[in-house]
Amino acid sequence: MNTFTGPFLGILGGMGPLASATLMTRLAQLTPATSDQEHIPSILWSDPRTPSRPAAYLHQGPDPLPWMLNGITHLEHAGAKTIVIPCNTAHLWFDALCAHTQLPIIHIVDAVIQNLQDQGIRSGRIGLMATSATLASMLYQDRLHAHGYECLTPNAEEIEKYCSVPIEFAKKGKLDAAQRAVTPGVTTLFSRGAQAIILGCTELPLALPHPVRNFWDIPIIDSIDALTHAAIRWYTQQPH
Fold first, then answer.
1. Predicted local confidence at residue 161, as pLDDT
2. For a 10 Å CB count at each end of the chain, is N or C smaller?
């Protein structure tokens, strides 16, 4: 093997840029490495000019697919061997993205379900917070139901207050305001009997930092961390 080749992880990012940067940080923090050389070789394509995925899905904005395909092409040329996408709503174009490349793409919802199972949660009522487009598309609900879970979602008013507003704050870098906005939403789903809550937009983990998550005494499933664990699992299975 050429010294400079190998199992590079490709990250199709920029959706949004802070979520992509957070995935890179969590990749470094969660990889069981004892030296620089034991970390995962990674290539980040971060193009925040990609049009809004929720707006496009709801027919309120331009198509982001050409931008995402362009990013995948660049990752291929740079030597990536698999791809992760730290944007949940981007997975509404998952089939089209897979059709464009021979590289495997790790599905973020599959990663989240694996994370649930790794924490011993194999059934029960799972709360879900995400963009209005992700919730409307049933991206999570269908997969969760197929694995035997019951899914609890906010109503339309709650989606706006507890999901859309904190996501927008996080995209603006106003993380304190994002935390104040998202916290009542987690409490609402917890009060309705959720046994775990999925942060199914990669801005929501930014709004609800790790130190405050123990308040509810149930697992808070972070889609950035779940995707990171899936990437680490992929890398450890590759020949080096």
1. 98
2. N
Antiparallel, parallel or unpaired: β 80-84 and 124-129: unpaired
Task: Enter the CATH code of domain 109-222.
Answer: 3.40.50.1860
> Hey, what are 80's tokens?
């990536």
pLDDT tens by residue, 88-127:
999 999 999 999 999 999 999 999 999 999 999 999 999 9
The pTM of the full predicted model, rounded to 2 decimals, is 0.96
For residues 212 and 183, what is the distance between their CA atoms, to the nearest angstrom? 10
CA distances from 54 to 29, 61, 119, 133, 225 (A): 30, 8, 30, 5, 22
How many of the other CB atoms lie within 10 Å of CB of 144?
20
Segments in the chain below pLDDT 70: 1-3
- Tokens 């709650």 label which residue? 158
Class of domain 8-107+227-236: alpha beta
- Concatenating the DSSP letter of every residue in 104-117 gives -B--HHHHHHHHHH
